[in-house]
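Subgroup meeting minutes
Present: P.N., E.W., G.H.
Scribe: E.W.

1. P.N. recapped why we're keeping a running log of single-chain structure predictions: easier to compare across weeks, and new members can see raw inputs and outputs side by side.
2. G.H. added today's entry (864 aa).
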Amino acid sequence: MNILLQLQNTSKGKLPYNNKKETLEQRKKWLTDISPPPSINKFHKGNSLISTSHGASFKVQENVSKNNNYEEELLYVACYSGLSPPKVPVSNESGKARKPEISTPPPKPKPEIVDKFTPVSPEYNSSSKLIKEYEQAYEKKKEAAIAKKRQEFDQNMAKLTQLSKEQLMIREKQQNDQLKSLHQQTEKHLKEKDESEKQVQVMKESHRQHQQMLDAKVLEVEKRKQQLKDEARKRQEQIQAMAQKIHASINILISQFITEFEGCPHKEYFSEDAKATYTQIRSIKTKVDTLLESFKAAMSKQEDLKKLMELFEMCKRGLESVKTHIADANKKGKEVEEQKALAAKAAQLAQEQQQALPPAQTDAISTPTKSSNTSTNIKTSEDVMVDALEEYSKLQGNLSSLFCKLEQIQAMAQKIHASINILISQFITEFEGCPHKEYFSEDAKATYTQIRSIKTKVDTLLESFKAAISKQEDLKKLMELFEICKRGLESVKTHIADANKKGKEVEEQKALAAKAAQLAQEQQQALPPAQTDAISTPTKSSNTSTNIKTSEDVMVDALEEYSKLQGKLQKITESLNAFVNNPQMKKYKFELQKAVNTPINAISPESSSHLQDKLHRLTSLMSGQVVELSGKRISAKEAPEGILFCKNLAAKMIVKKGAEQVSSKHETAFAIAAVTVGLWCHDADIGDLLLAHFHKACPYTIPFILPKQEKQSLEKYHEYLGYKVEDGVIEDQDKFLKRMSGVMRLYAAILVTSPPRGSNSVHPFGIEHAWIWLSRVLNSPPQPDITATMIYDMLYVTGHLLHDQFRNQFLKLLSCLFNEYVPKLRSVAVGGGPVSRLETFIGNVIKSGGKIAKPEGLLPSNFL
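Output recorded in log:
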């Protein structure tokens, strides 16, 4: 009992039971403090814990394992502590530890063993059990709390896992979508890369071709430059040679002038004009030498040659005038010598008479003077006679010089009159003797009228000279008329050459047309009687044989039509020049251009109402009505030239659409043609302007091609043929064919497009003109590539309607083209592609019986 009290009073025996929550560290400390009482510690210094089956624990001395009575000591402790015998390791024979198995309580230990131990109080065991039970309860509560916490943790973990899975699925879906999008973008980029590579290859090929073209053009330009340099060098050499010849001629003229001038025996009587001419001629020598040096150094200009020619003319005129001056000086010198001889003779006679008189009368004849005069002022009779004779001679000389000048003027007037008559006679003879005078230009005819009127003026002036009532101005007028006749005679040669050239060209064309007509007639005679009308222009059944035209007539009609339309266009252009160049009309002109260009540029086969709106806008503008444009109201009547300007601009823009738009998109030609036919039905003047612009932009729409003129440059001739020429570079053949094809397709589309509904008029330029065009082509010489292209475009657009209208005749025309004209085209072909395409097209059409499909984009007849 004392031991129990002692245990209870110790700090280790007091068990603190409270409901306060303790930390894990406090719990461990509290459990650690639970140990055997101090009386037992002395036997268990090693603190080796021995567990029993009942959960009690005690400590054993460290050296117990060394005693031989180890097992007995354990049994003793177990017996007196109320515990079951512990299973502890026991040494076996080999010295290793083993676990003894004690099934029954051991016998009472030996006394020496008991003496080694102090027994433990039984309360200690119950206290230990209570502690263990408390620990077990605590462990259960702890495990329950841990289990509850674990369950909550598992639930939260499950929720978090589910949320994570959902977020992961959403993220996976987003990633899959992104990957799919990236895959699609990658495929798209790869396709674009392939297309880009193809485009790069195409661009490289195009660049290579373009580079080749540029190289070819560069070579051509270099050749041209070299050619121009050679021409300039030759021209410079010619100019230098000419300058040397002129210089030699001037030196000869100057030498002759100086020789004759200084060789004159009476040069002291030269007039001031003669002396001035002499000084001028001598100064020309230095100028000529300076100019010649500049020619040799190749530093001269065109003006230097003109100056040299002027100096030559001056020397020439000076040499001609010096003869007159020498004659006048000699004449004057002879008169003075005669007067001196007469004066000497008169003085001699007076001296003889004076000697015969008395001395007192010697002063009778002298001139009276004042009384203060001395003998030195007294004139003798000889002096008086000499003075009288000099005055008389002077008056006679002046009178004779006047008469001489009058005679010279009259003689000069007669010479000029005779020269003018000769010039007029030569002019009239050459002008009227021209075999092709019907081709004279208006300038040539005006010059002819002017020269004929000069004849009367010259005769009137000559009569005034003969009657001595002329003035100095009359001589100037006579000289001006002489210059006019001289220039007229020089110009008539040029006019005659131009007229002869034009006449020869027309004759050659007529000869070609006659030859073509002869060939056509021979082919026509070779055909059966039922087929003799196949190639002639189709007419109504009532037409007689007088309506049939030969090939020559066809080409003449084409030339007349071309000349008439181009002349009309030229007159209209000239009449609009003042309006176009007027700066005050600049804003108004811009508004008119916008009013015309806006509806024309907006033409498209969108709908019937769309085309009707564009047609209505244009017809209203050209009728002088007020139209609204960008919020502004404008009328073409505000200026007298306004309506004509709009018509001409509309015709020009329509043809331009063919070259720029239809050449790229052929099907757009029919919408433009529908509006064009509507304008033509509204105003016939627009039709003539349209045809004139068509023929100017593409002369193959007539068709009529003039040969190159002698003085016409290669660039100008190509511009006439329809090529674009920029900075001396002629347009490429492929681009040229493409543009001309666009113009021809628009021209042909007009022929097959029906007039607008409600117009109550026939087509102003219908399908019969396609037949006329084909007949003209058959009667004209083919041009390389372009003729084949034009025939193909015409047949492709109008062929279906030609077949519907003319049937068998159209089929015969195709046969004639295929058998007779295509070989001619092939003989002049350059590329071969256009001719092969045309030949294949006509061959397929003939095999199908002449049927041709309608062209793509053709509008229905009632569309507009």
